[in-house]
């Protein structure tokens, strides 16, 4: 029987969110749809409070090692909670513009954040699976949240069906690992997963990696990503592109480093193949896209390949690089989606690249913001995206994987074409006469302010000195 007086403080942020979500759900059920705005505000406050609590929880493990609170998990939780809070804000503005008043939206994001935090603190295969399913169930509903839109319903169904497949891979891999290791705990598995592991353990590890690769939308397990990004509501896609990927990457790193650290020669080969496939699919697949959200889907596939290089390195510097990359990636992605939500033509949301034609004249501030964000994501110095790639490529090269880092650099150059195309359309293509930009609504003006704030971060990141030491401390605290 665990000592709850020691265990509960370690999970204080998760308990705060879970209990808060129940209270908000009851509040919405009694007040009705008119409580949507109030619940959104309370959800943001709840997520920010959870981030503050997570930053000060004690270090240790609970529930026989199933739940781990270390600096690595704390860093991830703070980032996940803050990213979820931004998603709630973006979603509130989207619902106001679409005249949708549903109090369940922010509550689902809060519940998803609980699952993501559980993923970050997983210490064994059971808690790993519980965290994955807890956050996935909420995301399935969010993908189809706009139920009057056929594309959103299709996106939710595809995500659910393929998500069930990935869950099956996770469970089958976990059962094989348990059968050969005799334990679910990562620490116990590490004692069996030596430099020359048993074939059955390797098979289980491969299935586990495949299941986790689906969650981060790494190729060749990316098949759900373009369709879900295209069909789901824009603020939901903004959430998909940020917080869940951070949680899954942290879980990926924890499972590989703590459970199979001595067997790196086995799993690094699989991850290298996934990285190379993600580079190719993300860079080449994005060249033919015209829908902006589908384009961002292929961009995310390539960027996850870059982030995985930090895990492939198998070093503390590699983990630090992965955390830095994901942090900067989250900021850039929210900037992109804030720009999309701030724009409309003839009363309809911007969806295609060509809809951005003539933006320099109609929305000069937004055009500058999107230009800086595009340059940042493609890795142009001195913006933040450059530094993210600099750290992951450097960590991979220092660990001896310079060929893979070189392949990632080539893919980054290829992917630069579709970012430069966005800039070209904004600044040099005239706006069609039948698509003249309309005046911004108050909601769209608010999103423009978000976009301007988001692009300011890539501009000043060179002068910030807090991110690198924080990521280093988090990486050194794994386990």
Q: Mean pLDDT, rounded to whole units?
A: 84
How are helices and strands ordered from N to C? HHHEEHHHHHHHHHHHHEEHHHHHH
Helix content: over 70%
Please count the helical segments: 21
Instruction: Describe the oligomeric state of these chains in a short phrase.
Output: single chain
Number of domains: 1
Class from secondary-structure proportions: mainly alpha
- Give a short account of the largest sheet: 2 strands, antiparallel
Approximate shape: globular
Strand tally: 4
Strand numbers in spatial order across the main sheet? 1-2
Distance between the termini: 23 Å
Low-confidence stretches: none
Radius of gyration from CA coordinates: 21 Å
Beta-strand residue fraction: under 5%
